[in-house]
Amino acid sequence: MKDSQYKDINDSIDEIISNAARKGILHLYTEDNKLEGNYITINGKRLLNFGSCSYLGLEVDERLKAGVIDAVNKWGTQYSSSRTYVSVTPYTELEDLIGQIFEASVVITSSTSSGHISTIPTIILPNDAIILDQQVHHSVQTAAQLTKLKGTQIELIRHSRLDQLEEKIKQLRVKHQRIWYMIDGVYSMFGDFAPIHELYALLNQYEQFYLYVDDAHGMSWTGKNGRGYILSQVSLHSKMVLATSFAKAFGTGGAAFVFPEGELARRVKTLGGPLIYSGPMQPPMLGGTIASAKIHLSPEIYSLQNDLKEKIEWTNNLLIESGLPVMSSATAPIFFIGMGLPKVGNNIVKRLFNDGFYVNLSVFPAVPLKNTGIRFTITRHLTNSNIKDLIDAIKYNMDYVYKEENVSENSIRRMFNLPIYNEVKEEDKIEWKLEYHKSIKDINKKEWNKFLGDENMLNWEYVLFLESIFSNNSEEVNNWNFHFYIIRDNKGVPILMTFFTSFIAKEDIFSPNEVSVKIEAIRKENPNYLVSRIFMMGSLASLGNHLYIDKSNTKWKECLELLLKRVSEDQEKEKVSLLCLRDFDEADTEFRDIFWNIGFVKVFLPDIHILKTNFNSTDDYLKFLRHDKRFLIKKRALEFEECFDVVVQSSLSPSEANECYNLYKNVARRSYEVNVFDLPLKFFQNIGNNSEQLEIILLKLKPDYSKANSSLLVAMAVNYRSSTSYDFLFTGMDYDFIASYSIYYQILWQIIKRAINLKVDVVNLGLTASQNKRKFNAETFKQVAYVQAKDNFNMELIGLISAEKQ
Q: Which residues neighbour 204 within 8 Å (Cβ) at sequence distance 6 or greater?
């Protein structure tokens, strides 16, 4: 189990949402004494409301208000009873009316979320499987997770990828009775539609295939009697369950679940958890919903729909004329304009607020990290003039935002794979340039070591060693591409210096141990599962700070953004999906804010362990320790020291290299704290070539203890030696002796002993095994990485696996 510093991705989401809330963009409250439909007041400012999902504007309809008031007068504010016992009188009328709208069996629930929790665990049988669309509503995903209690297999596919869906159906039908694909009818962020006609064909083609649809955003504004988008396109299939909401265009609250036959509806009503144990829809909402249902069953619904559709068409035509990077469908009341980076989205939302418009900011995790955008909705409350004013304001403000945030419209279009307009290359007005190299050999050795190599584990010769090891290998996973970046001021002095490597990696590299164990089990059948190229600051064979940046220069932030812009371009050239900036101090809020604004999310890394070693001798070190730690080291390390021949070498013979490599693999195959592919044997064979910084400590168990004819190599530690520090890179051990001779404690002791003898200031004991390293008085430092993915799919897939870990 990994140590407690491994925080859930929710911590990063919390920070992103809280940051937007502090900027006055999210978690807002209206201040109106009375809502009129098209305006809201926030922070004392009157805003045209483009954030409502009440598409038909029925929430202020006098008939619905009268229905609520009449119900309150007759049945009070609540009827507090489980529906298993008694349902209040208006339920009978409402169920009949909703049944007429859908011409099918229905179950009414107090909310869509509680309805999913009632329905999904009830209809899913133990031998069923679930396939989740990547963008299906979170409430569906939450309810689906409950089915894991009975062993249901859950898979995730990319959004509306029917090729992946059909492949999954073919795989799962061998072992599963039914295969449910769970989707939205209209997706809430981009306003795109489910490919229902193609899915209907699959329902007919595959006997075991079933469909579960949440059509909450499709309700009312389209379809016969407002029954929604899905049923405006196809009839209710015998293998389809449909969920919809009264809390959007219907104008009230609660939800309806539509079933192809009455027995299934009865079973959900009888067994659905919240229907048994939670409260019902209360009389006020029942009264309002009855009033709305009567409108839906009258010819008036079609005039309401047509009115909205005319506004949608008007909006779409204006957006086409505007040339803005629009991502949404042309016929849904949900519109999405791509902003790309969070800082661009934050800026335009604040500007629109100031100009009198309320729109939604769409940001991670609702959309991918670099797919931030503004989402606005069209309701019947809005006039054509209101809509034109908004689009004009967006267009006007974007010209300023592009300049302020140093982005172009075409750079945003690239993030969304939209067509690129004629591009005019602007002259670079900055006074410094970015210098790029593909090899450390092209960089001045003295300069590199002065600014980056001497202070970190990145000596020029060691980086050259890494270049030689991770190139020209037969296995592609052992070939890295190196990218070196230097930004200088107008006098040629470096302001920034760093390097990146791109390589084939396991995307669960920093995932919890138990998650990687599950993924590795899948990789036995599919070796390329969740494997892709990563573009990473630094390398997998180095520790510490990989970025030199002169913060005394007033332009250092602009330099950093220039670097990341170029890195992103190089990432695109190599077709790499994940970018990783690593080894930053968790408490450094300056870096955090910069990275957030350009679409990175924080990931917690294993703690680093640092021990000050400025002691004259190991005796002084032991005397310095607290009594309990000193006792433990004597008991676990010193008492066994005489059992070993300890050898420090700067190179290995061919046989020693093979032995050390096998010991290394013993540990690598058992530890998933940082889950990476094994280093190549070539690394061990070439220790001592090009780089004088590497050395290896060998622990050889003496014949008297190993029962061998000669000393037996049972452990090794590869370390990096500089003038100021001694860095522990990785280890290898023979597990037959690890417990009986406390081998790991002995390795740590010999590393510390070596560092003290070398008179260096500190020993870096590396990552993982915090509990053991703290016993040697190592201080832990929390570090983070910032990652940016082109889409959220693999991150969500790992999250799905993580949810199974218990």
A: none
